[in-house]
Specification:
Sensor_HK_TwoCompSys; Single alpha-helices involved in coiled-coils or other helix-helix interfaces; 11 helices; 5-stranded mixed β-sheet; single chain; Heat Shock Protein 90; alpha+beta
Length: 383
């Protein structure tokens, strides 16, 4: 389906930029009195280097595999640079430079090792208290120390918790994709075995009887005709078996697909709810609805980061309407092959598929009423 590029993702990308507003404090401290060119060059150079490292720490949004290790190394580099910047610029910024210690604690939170993240954050807090130990700050300056210490530790813990959640979510997506791949491989193997069992022996018999009929055509036409009729009978039986097998491959209906969807969503920590009773559906409509539901659930598990999925199937004047809504990241990114295929399938049936990325993702499929009339309720499935 689609890997969305939603507003929440954009907000997450820009969120670290908002925190850069706190650099106004060391900048204001530096500008309190006239500075020499060398002091200005030192301040501007360290500030630019700090900004470059800070932005590199936050640019890895999904920490998986190699990117996770790269982000953790950048986080350590950012923490070291924050301490260096604080000490080097301390004569120029005084207490306002403690903002760099808060930034350092927030960056070191991007670590898989909890002990490393928290101990280095506590070290930043100790460095913040250091000027009081040396007498550089006076007791009158204590009013800003407590909130800064709290903010330092909270920033480290919050970013570490967020980092752990993102790693866990990314690992879950990897596991889910692997499970889907293994399931697809197992299904292909099952189909291959079924086709071999169904057609292997039957086609061999047909070939042998056809060869026999060809040899008997001139010497014993009656026997040859009998063999040809036998070939026809065996072929019809094989055709019936193949049709039955194909019907089984098409699935067991929307209710069965809903049950499979609930299992997949439960594993991903997403709640599934079905609103209202499910009407009976014509076979083409039910097959299309089941496939759309499977595609939508796959997208939710892989990309949506949703907490709930709601499914509604209602009777309309011209057929049936299936609405699948999630409260995930949403967005209006380009559609993948899954949605494109479903859109083409619905168009071939005379229906249409619409997508709305506002407040999550909502897929609305209108199926034409070409086959059956209005059915009775088929039960209610809830999470």
């Amino acid at each position: 389906m689609t890997r969305p590029a939603p507003r929440r993702t954009l907000v997450w990308d820009l969120f670290p930029m908002f925190w850069l507003a706190f650099l106004a404090f060391p900048v204001a401290g530096f500008l309190e009195r006239p500075r020499t060119w060398s002091e200005t060059a030192l301040f501007v150079g360290l500030l630019a280097l700090f900004l470059a490292v800070y932005l590199n720490v936050f640019r890895f949004r999904v920490p998986t595999g190699r990117s996770a290790g790269v982000q953790e190394r950048w986080a350590v580099a950012g923490w070291v640079l924050s301490l260096v910047t604080y000490f080097v610029l301390f004569p120029l910024t005084s207490g306002t430079g403690s903002a760099f210690l808060i930034y350092g604690a927030s960056m070191i939170g991007f670590q898989a090792r909890t002990a490393l993240a928290l101990w280095l954050a506590f070290l930043n807090a100790a460095v913040m208290v250091w000027p009081f130990w040396t007498g550089t700050y006076q007791p009158d300056d204590l009013w800003w120390l407590a909130p800064n210490l709290l903010f330092t530790l909270v920033a480290a813990y919050a970013n570490h918790a967020s980092y752990g959640q993102r790693i866990a979510r990314a690992q879950l997506e990897v596991v889910q994709r692997e499970k889907e791949r293994l399931a697809a491989d197992a299904e292909r193997e099952r189909i291959a075995r079924d086709l071999h069992d169904l057609l292997g022996h039957t086609l061999s018999v047909i070939v042998l009887k056809s060869e026999l009929a060809g040899k008997l055509a001139e010497r014993d036409p009656v026997r040859a005709a009998q063999e040809i009729r036998e070939v026809e009978r065996i072929s019809r039986e094989a055709l019936t078996e193949v049709r039955d097998a194909v019907h089984g491959y098409r699935g067991s209906g929307l209710n069965a697909e809903l049950a499979r969807a609930k299992v997949a969503l439960d594993a991903a920590g997403v709640r599934l709810s079905v609103t209202g009773p499910l009407p009976d559906l014509p076979a083409p409509t039910e097959a299309g609805a089941a496939m759309l539901l499977r595609e939508a659930v796959t997208n939710v598990v892989r990309h949506a980061h949703a907490r709930e999925v709601e499914v509604t199937l209602t009777r309309t004047k011209g057929g049936h309407r299936l609405v699948i809504r999630d409260d995930g990241v949403g967005g209006e990114g380009p559609e993948g092959s899954g949605l494109t295929g479903m859109r083409e399938r619905l168009r071939a049936l005379g229906g249409q598929l619409t997508r709305d990325g506002t407040g999550g993702t909502t897929l609305t499929a209108d199926f034409p009423d070409d086959v059956g009339g209005e059915g009775t309720g088929a039960g209610l499935v809830t999470a």
